C-alpha cells in the first residue's frame, strides 16, 4: 500500500499545485485523499524524503524540493549460495546493529508507534503460525526510518529481495518446528522494539545483533 501511495505522490510532484517549493497537504488530508492509514502514508513520505523529493520543515509540514539528479540505484545482486547467505546475515548484523542504536537515540513518537505497529503485526502472524515475511521487512524498515539516517533507509530498501529470500531459506532449511521458530523470532523483535522504546542504544544494538545472529544459528545450527 505504501508503494502505491509513493507512486501516486511521485506523479503529483512537479505538476500543477505541487511544483518546486509547494507545501504538501497535511498528513490527515493526504491519508484521506488516498484512503490509507497515516502509518502507511508516513512510509511513502519517508521514502520521498530519503530520495530527496520532499523536505520537512519543523512546524510547517512537507515541501516539494527543487529537482535533484537521480540517485544511483544500489544493487547487491542475488544470493547465489549458502556462504553468500552467511555473509549477508553478517553484513546485516553490522549495519542494522548501529541502525537500531541510532533509532533508540533519535526516534520520534510517531516513528516508534510505526515500529510497534509492525511488531504487533509480526506477533499476530506468529500466533497464527504464519511466516510474516512482509511484516518482518516492514519492522526493520520502520527502524531504519527512526534512525534519522536516509542511508539506512536506502540500504534496507536495496536489500529487500535478498531479505525475503533469506527468510524463506532459513525457514525451509531449519530443522526446528515452525511454530517454535516463529515464536522465537517474535520474541527477538519484541526485545528490539522494547530497547528502542526505552531509548537504550546499547541494548537496542545488542538485541538487533542477537536477532540477526539468530538467523545464522537457525540456518547453520551454531
Describe this structure as you would to a colleague.
The chain is mostly helical and 222 residues long. It folds into two domains: 2-64, Winged helix-like DNA-binding domain superfamily/Winged helix DNA-binding domain (Arc Repressor Mutant, subunit A, Orthogonal Bundle); 82-220, GntR ligand-binding domain-like (Four Helix Bundle (Hemerythrin (Met), subunit A)), CATH 1.20.120.530. 69% of the residues lie in helices and 4% in strands. It has ten helices and two strands; from the N terminus they run αααββααααααα. Strands 1-2 form a two-stranded antiparallel ribbon. The mean pLDDT is 86.
How would you summarize the topology of this molecule?
Layout (H helix, E strand, L loop, with lengths): L1 H11 L14 H8 L3 H13 L3 E4 L3 E4 L17 H25 L2 H19 L5 H14 L3 H9 L1 H14 L4 H21 L2 H20 L2
Antiparallel strand pairs: 1-2
Amino acid at each position: 500500500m505504501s508503494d502505491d501511495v509513493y507512486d501516486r505522490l511521485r506523479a503529483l510532484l512537479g505538476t500543477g499545485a505541487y511544483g518546486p517549493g509547494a507545501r504538501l497537504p497535511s498528513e490527515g488530508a493526504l491519508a484521506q485523499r488516498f484512503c490509507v492509514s497515516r502509518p502507511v502514508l508516513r512510509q511513502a513520505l519517508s521514502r520521498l524524503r530519503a530520495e530527496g523529493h520532499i523536505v520537512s520543515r519543523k512546524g510547517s509540514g512537507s515541501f516539494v524540493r527543487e529537482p535533484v539528479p537521480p540517485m544511483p540505484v544500489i544493487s547487491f545482486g542475488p544470493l547465489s549460495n549458502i556462504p553468500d547467505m552467511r555473509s549477508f546475515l553478517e553484513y546485516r548484523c553490522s549495519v542494522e546493529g548501529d541502525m537500531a542504536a541510532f533509532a533508540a537515540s533519535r526516534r520520534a513518537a510517531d516513528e516508534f508507534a510505526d515500529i510497534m505497529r509492525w511488531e504487533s503485526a509480526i506477533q499476530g502472524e506468529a500466533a497464527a503460525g504464519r511466516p510474516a515475511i512482509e511484516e518482518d521487512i516492514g519492522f526493520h524498515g520502520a527502524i531504519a526510518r527512526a534512525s534519522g539516517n536516509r542511508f539506512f533507509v536506502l540500504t534496507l530498501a536495496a536489500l529487500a529481495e535478498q531479505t525475503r529470500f533469506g527468510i524463506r531459506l532459513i525457514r525451509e532449511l531449519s530443522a526446528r518446528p515452525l511454530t517454535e521458530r516463529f515464536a522465537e523470532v517474535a520474541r527477538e523483535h519484541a526485545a528490539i522494539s522494547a530497547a528502542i522504546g526505552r531509548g537504550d542504544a546499547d541494548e537496542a544494538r545488542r538485541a538487533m545483533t542477537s536477532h540477526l545472529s539468530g538467523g545464522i544459528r537457525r540456518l547453520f545450527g551454531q
